[in-house]
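Appendix B. Worked example

We walk through a single record from start to finish. Start with the input: the chain for DUF1648 domain-containing protein, Hyphomonas johnsonii MHS-2, length 237.
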Amino acid sequence: MKPYIRTGLIWSALMIAIMVGAVVWMVDALPKDGPVPVHFDMEGTPNRYASRFEAILIFSSLPAISAIVTVILAIAPSLDPRGTNIDAGRKAYVAVWVGVMIVLALATVGSCMILVNAVNGTPAGPGIVRGIIAACALLFVAMGNYLPKTRPSFILGVRTPWTLSSDIAWEKTHRLAGRLFIGAGLLGFLGAFVLDGIWPVVPLVALSMTAALVSVIYSYFAWRSADDRDNGTGRTG
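Next comes the structure step. The output line below is what the pipeline stores for this chain.
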C-alpha cells in the first residue's frame, strides 16, 4: 500500500470513529417514543420531525457515506490511467482527502449536538451551523492552496477536455482556480459569521460555483493558446 493512501485511511478511520461515537451518543439521548427533530433551519431550530427509527437511520447514514467516500478515495489512484500523476501530486490528494473527512466529521458531530439540544429543549442557536459552514469554507481554502500542485488526472482537479489534453492548460487553469477557491473560501468564512438567517451559506455556495465555472471557461482559452494542445504528455513539471 502506498504511504499516502495509508495516511488517508488512518485519518478516515479516526474521523469515522468520531462520527460513530457521536451517533451512538445521539441515539442514547433520543426519547423512546414520539417524534424526533431531524431537520433544522440556519438558527438550529427544528423544522421537520420524524420517528425515532427514521432519525437513527438518517444520522447513521453519515458515517456510512464517509466510509464509502474513503473506499473510493483509496482505490481511485489505482484505477486512474494517470495514477502516477496522482502519486506525484500526493500532497494535494491527501490534503483534500483529509479535509473532506474532517468536514464530514464536524458536520456529523454538529448535527448530533443540534438534535440532542433540541430534544432537551435547549436550541443550539446558529453557532454550530456557522461553525460547519466555516469548516467548509476552510476546506475550499485548503483545496485552493493545493490545486496548483496537482498533476493531470481523471480524479482530482479541474478536469475538462482542454486541461486533460494540454499540460500547459492544466497548469494555467489550476493556478487561476487555486486563487479563486482561496478567495471563495475566505469570503465564505467571513460570511459564516457576519451574515444572519440563511445568508451565511449563500456566499460560499455562490462564490465556489462561480470559481468552478470561471475555471472551466478559462481552461478552454488556456488550451487555445497552449503550444502543446495537440501533444500533451499528461504530466506537468
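Two observations about the output. Confidence is low (pLDDT under 50) at residues 233-237. The radius of gyration is 20 Å.
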